[in-house]
Design a protein that fits this description.
The structure is a homotetramer of 265-residue chains.
Chain A lengths: L14 E17 L2 E15 L8 H11 L6 H14 L4 E15 L6 E15 L5 E13 L1 H6 L6 E12 L5 H12 L9 H13 L4 H14 L5 E8 L7 E8 L1 H6 L3
Antiparallel strand pairs in A: 1-2, 2-3, 3-4, 4-5, 5-6, 6-7, 7-8
Helix pairs in contact in A: 1-2
Chain lengths: 265, 265, 265, 265
């Protein structure tokens, strides 16, 4: 059978990324004693040099099949990137997994264990002859209480669910637990799945005592990320689902001077 | 060219609904002085009797083309249903439009005009020899403040955006404005797009003075709907995006005894 | 601390369903040798009788915490329903899990194993003094090739991804594998994640030999479901993402005479 | 009342973008004779310099209220950007509108007029002392037919809906119609809402005669964009919803050397 993908292409255009996406794979996350099986949505791609017409998509799926049920780690990422580079004959490869990650937390007063889940995405990229770069995208739901509303009102203050997100570029492979705990601590008003009445009293009062604008949260997280030597570049974003409005507010900081000037394209 | 859709079918199975969906159509909503052009997502279907293999999908689109830019009204609904019944040769037809509807509201203290938008869906159905039934689905974003959190805390109370929705079955063609205003009034803590500082103080304090569980809102709206003679059957639902949790709470009441027992299939 | 939820309510309105939703729980699905850990999105609710103001939401989460990491089965469903009825003092309970389920399939020619994933939802309901009802909702992606396009064209025929879905009400607790295989077999053009070139040739030609309208698929699945004695009521739906249009086509059949007349509210 | 937003901030962190998003605004698009009212989802933001604690979000909404019902144009964009810079006291402003745009097309054989809709996003940015930059993001649904499947199969070839998207950075304010027509022409197999049988025959055969990989489409669009002097930087992407798989394939090219090296953060 003719291999039409391998025919030569005369247009002379290199393709930055070509591959498959929205492929679901069952995989394991293991951090310390916390070992969990999750379903990740995967993307895999290569750089296609300018003389080939198309890539062989089924090879990505075969590589993905070999990952099924394995532990997602720096080792697996690097191994998969190398396999892609070799099997698909490219100079550059990318692998990305999006998933929901669970962490057990202890409620503040009743001291019960409860689960919280976080949307995460880990991408790794390898260019032949270089070390891999890793990218960690984490979303942490928190609560925000409006400093202005508190200041001007006789009682109460509007508060709401908000979402803190960071994207980090690093040579280092981070622990998700550490990143999540850091973001929750910095944003101050973290969430829990179970709250007994004495916990609810505690978090309600703590929130009232710690009003924060989206600007405050973005700045605090910026300061933390900036001080972390393993973080090469990063974006921080906070989005608040305002309880008194039907639109949302946001604040974002991009710590990458070159990127900042070009971020729109 | 052969008309393969019109060939006869021997399986003897009547199809309840067959047609097209996710078709976007520009259309006009006109209520009193409020005339607005919106983009609706449309569904159109018929009942296909058991002897025909398939329907002629392109006829729905031709009917839709004739609706473009017209005013969405009881008249247009009935006219379109009759056209479908005739052009597609069926005993039953359905038309449905989903869209975002805007209403101008006045802020509570500064008295500024501001826009709010609401997700709405209007479906109409016609069975030959009967009058049409109309179904109105409306989503109204509101704020809820937790009565328990307020009661047990020294200060503050967790509050959040919530969503009240109703689905109403009626022979009557309702005004959207009236339904929306009724739902906002009943849920007590309505939202605004603009709130100057004196408005923010007002809504913050009002919310603190009017704590409501999702159960309270569902019951209040039930009582209103039940007392409205033009409403034949209805479902009311309230969903609250809890600020202190990462999951949501809900309450729903179905006022249709036959449906209630069968609502899961 | 005051238990404000337990205060009495004078409105005299019973709430059909009140509880929590969009709660993610890690859980295990086990069918034969196929044991997989997945992340389910859960809903849990009760009927709230007319004299109580509100339910105790945190009890649902405590029940959910006890389910974490267990095998999703008829036993777990029934046990959870009974626990809810008891702990929350209600006459009626509902539990629902939505998740992605994986099945290993063998490619048609190269005989390679490959994974496919399917969106599933299982709900169970218990009314005191009755046996539980189970509801299975399954979505199976398939391909459809248009009989009309094939008939009238010199070569080729438009084809596309489509989605077959069924919702089944039963006293029986079904195996997901069996339902999925049945739907794939009935819709004829099933999907695979890996297809080597000889497989691709096979599925391309098979699809061309088996053109089906959405109406055909809905009818074939109806006939299967109707003949299955364990299925009490059901809805079947087929939706096709037409490759030559930007809208979709659908066909649905509801096998529940009472429901059919009331399905819109 | 105290203006807590205007209090000074000691953290010394500049915020790249802060503002409101997911605000819906009714607005008009006018190109030649094609004048249409649409509902846009808007984002508005500023750069917040390092000495201010927070911005005044309600001012964005007041500016948005003044835009309601006006024609979206270069003039409106520039005027709005200048208003934001002035009213919110910043050196940099951004405005973004996402919406669905309709175009009338003529079916290929029966020559009927029919509507097609396209997702579009236009952002403009202004830095004090500079001219505005405009960014156009357009999504065009097309059909792709697999060259490999056609080559190796006796008859037929798998085809499916795909989505071509471009993001363009320019000093020029483009006409949407021109961009859309260009993308449809380049991807070869464009979609229509109405297709009578003779049209369906035509598009089926044309698609069979014009097989294209996602790589082919990305390259062809790259060549067009590269040759257009008004386009400063751009990204092109093609994503295909494979009819024989449950995952998707994609190809993307980024024409911005600085961005390419930093695109992940």
């Amino acid at each position: 059978m003719k291999d039409i993908q391998s025919t030569s292409d005369r247009r002379g255009v290199e393709i930055d990324e070509v591959g498959i996406e929205n492929l679901r794979i069952p995989i394991i996350i293991s951090e310390g004693k916390n070992k969990q099986s999750i379903v990740a949505e995967a993307k895999m791609g290569i750089n296609l040099f300018n003389r080939s017409r198309a890539t062989h998509m089924s090879r990505f799926i075969e590589i993905a099949e070999a990952i099924k049920g394995r532990i997602l780690s720096e080792k697996l990422m690097t191994e998969t990137l190398k396999k892609i580079v070799t099997k698909l004959g490219s100079k550059h490869a990318i692998v990305e997994f999006s998933f929901v990650y669970f962490m057990t937390k202890i409620t503040p007063v009743s001291k019960k264990g409860c689960s919280m889940d976080y949307r995460c995405k880990i991408s790794s990229e390898l260019t032949k002859g270089d070390e891999p770069w890793h990218y960690f995208y984490i979303e942490v739901p928190v609560a925000t209480l409006c400093p202005c509303s508190k200041e001007i009102s006789k009682y109460g203050a509007h508060n709401q669910r908000a979402r803190v997100s960071v994207k980090i570029k690093s040579r280092e492979y981070f622990k998700l637990d550490q990143l999540i705990r850091q973001l929750e601590k910095t944003a101050k008003n973290e969430l829990f799945s179970v709250l007994k009445r004495k916990d609810e009293k505690y978090v309600t009062e703590k929130m009232y005592e710690n009003p924060m604008f989206v600007e405050d949260i973005a700045r605090e997280i910026y300061l933390w990320a900036k001080s972390n030597k393993n973080i090469s570049d990063f974006i921080v974003r906070c989005k608040s689902y305002e309880s008194i409005h039907n639109h949302n507010t946001y604040a974002s900081i991009v710590d990458n001077k070159i990127y900042a000037h070009n971020k729109k394209i």
